[in-house]
Specification:
The chain is α+β, with helices and mostly antiparallel strands and 131 residues long. It contains one helix and eight strands; from the N terminus they run ββββββββα. Bound molecules: zinc ion (ZN). The site of zinc ion (ZN) has 8 residues, from loops. The site of zinc ion has 8 residues, from loops.
């Protein structure tokens, strides 16, 4: 059965068995898990980071960005989650998938580069201050 509405649950550990229509968020571990909204019961894990996925809470529910693209699964489903509701998007063709992946990799590189740079400056500052 397709999921039209997700119920967000914030907890420390993602449970081994996921309930359908439930969107698990572990802020401590910076990850999320849910069963694919198409109903195929595949577990979908979306890591949270500025370069990966972001979950925004408001009074209506959670909004997940960017979209969830399950290209690796046979269903190849693609959807947005906006204020708990699933909005189906067109399945990307392979070219778009590879383009998107390249871009994702690029964003991720930028994110980790920025982190490395911050660490470098922190270390340098520590050295200058004699710590
Ligand atoms: Zn699916």
């Amino acid at each position: 059965m397709r999921t039209e509405i997700f119920a967000p649950v914030v907890l420390k550990y993602i449970p081994r068995t996921l309930e359908p229509h439930t969107f698990y968020i572990s802020e401590v571990y910076g990850t999320t898990a849910h069963l694919c909204a198409c109903g195929c019961r595949t577990k979908v894990f979306l890591p949270l980071s500025p370069a990966e996925w972001r979950v925004k809470f408001d009074e209506v529910g959670i909004t997940v960005r960017p979209s969830v693209g399950n290209w690796e699964f046979p269903c190849r489903s693609h959807y947005f989650i906006t204020q708990n509701a699933v909005q189906w998007a067109a399945a990307w063709d392979q070219v778009r998938v590879e383009d998107g992946r390249r871009k994702d990799g690029h964003d991720l590189d930028k994110y980790f580069d920025a982190r490395k740079r911050r660490k470098f400056w922190r270390r340098l500052r520590g050295r200058l201050l004699g710590r």
